[in-house]
Amino acid sequence: MEAIVTHKNTDFDAAAAAFAAQILYPGATPVLPKSLNPNVRQFLSIHKDLFPWSLPGEIDWTDVDRLVVVDTNDWKRLEGVPFPGEGPAPEIHLWDHHRSPATIEPAWEHCVAVGAVTTLFARRMEEEGLAISPIQATLFLAGIYEDTGNLTFPSTTSVDAQAVAFLLKRKADVEIVNTFLRPAYGPKQKDVLFDMIQNAERTKLNGYTVSVNACDIEGHTGGLALVVEMYQDILNVDAAFGIFRDGARGRAMVIGRSAVDDLNVGSIMRALGGGGHPGAGSALIKKDPDPAAIREHLFDLIQGNQKPAVQIGDLMSFPVFSVRPETPMSEAAQVLRDKGCTGLPVVEGDRVVGILSRRDFKRFRTPHKKDPPVKAFMSTDIHTIEPGQSVMQAARIMVKNDIGRLPVLKDGKLIGIVTRSDTMRYYYDLLPD
Ligand SMILES: [Mn+2]
Predict the structure, then answer these.
(1) From the CA of 145, how far away is ligand 1's center (Å)?
(2) How far apart are CA 323 and CA 325, in angstroms?
(3) What is the Å distance from ligand 1's center to 10 Cα?
């Protein structure tokens, strides 16, 4: 007998891969753990006739001579499957996409670091020209979309996109996928979101907009991370935090999301006893939570957390080539050509009094009878930045004012210049080490 197994708290990628494996291993039985994620359970209970499976307790494991393990390489994440040594030793085939060290030693494996393990099955089906139904394609697409966030998570690869293309060709239904991938957002979550929006407040902290919202909840409410995500989207703030107090149980859940890299929610949540990564995190406050005090604490942490990893000082160019207000335009043009810059700060003593950009030279056409001074053409609407500020802040100032460069000032003194292409280099990770 052949059995297909996957990890507990089974998500769409794991379940999809288990049923995909059945196509490649005809006759094998998918064995799913009892702990299916709610949306997977919902999907499978509707499609039970099409996707039958067994529970671990229904299997005579001494009968299993081949075990196909999908979406995990760790024995501990399997449920109800005898550990090696505890029972027979079936031949193991492993299909996985995790980078973590493996505790399962397979006889054969197909492990590639792609966004979803279902991708590997879909690719194999396409290569072998196997027929799949639109409903099968729909389940497989849900698997890939869930694990890659609709192909937007950093783990996404071009191979995942190829697998998606194949499944869409096989008539996967994106409407159904959408319906099942967002079931955590039910009436209870809508009520919480509605409450939060009615009490929404925005605060400006060091140039970022932040919203901290305290909200009372009753009993177990799942999906609050999604609620905070939607709240942040709707308010269009850089970071949003929800403090969800469950008065009856005397505890509060704090959930944060951040869209800017300088505001690290993970480290803020660690200071509250929780955890997470830079974009998202949470903490459970167990002892008599006081939302007002948590709110204050969050503000302090956010303010203390404002240390961008890469500062303007790391990115700026220096020394800066500059001209004086009286410098003739022809001479300024020569400096631009010689130094290969696209603009120049105009300096009087220590002070920046203007900016000369390529655009200003378009208005100045040689030959002029008289060579006019720079001050007749320079822009005096000057925006500057300090070396300790972040790239995100520089980018904002440039976008808002439609300018391509910012003088960097320290104590009012010009020490460097940062340009649009410097910020691009940062975003596309092309910074020299
Ligand atoms: Mn997976």
Answers:
(1) 10
(2) 7
(3) 9
53 and 146 in a single domain? The answer is yes
Question: Cα(201) to centroid of ligand 1, in Å?
Answer: 37
Mean pLDDT in residue range 54-59 = 95
Q: Please check whether residues 364 and 381 belong to one and the same domain.
A: yes
Average pLDDT over residues 342-360: 88
CA 192 to chain CA centroid, Å, is: 24
pLDDT higher for 25 or 152?
25
Domain that holds residue 260: 187-304
Cα distance between residue 27 and residue 363, in whole Å: 77
Ligand 1 geometric centre to CA of 12 (Å): 8
Residues with CB under 5 A from ligand 1 (ion): 13, 71, 117, 147
119 alpha carbon – ligand 1 mean position (Å):
10
Q: How far does residue 97's CA lie from ligand 1's centre (Å)? A: 7
Residue 161 shares a structural domain with residue 14: yes
Ligand 1 centroid distance, CA of 424 (Å):
32
Distance between Cα 269 and ligand 1 center (Å): 26
Whether 217 and 188 have beta carbons less than 8 Å apart is answered as: no
pLDDT tens-digit map of 186-208: 788 899 999 999 999 999 887 78
Instruction: Check if the beta carbon of residue 354 is closer than 8 Å to that of residue 346.
Output: yes
Instruction: Give dist(CA 282, CA 255) in Å, integer.
Output: 4
Q: 345 falls in which pLDDT band (50, 70, 90)?
A: very high
Q: Is 243 contained in some domain?
A: yes
How many whole angstroms separate alpha carbon 123 and alpha carbon 159?
A: 8
- pLDDT (tens digit, 9 = 90+) per residue, 142-193? 999 998 889 988 788 999 999 999 999 999 999 999 888 875 677 888 999 9
223-227, 329-333, 363-367: which has the minimum mean pLDDT? 363-367
In whole angstroms, how large is the CA radius of gyration of the chain?
A: 29
Contact predicate 115/144, CB 8 Å: yes
pLDDT for the residue numbered 249: 86
**What is the total count of domains within the chain?**
3
Written as one string, the DSSP assignment of 130-162 is ----HHHHHHHHHHHHHHHTTTTSTT--HHHHH
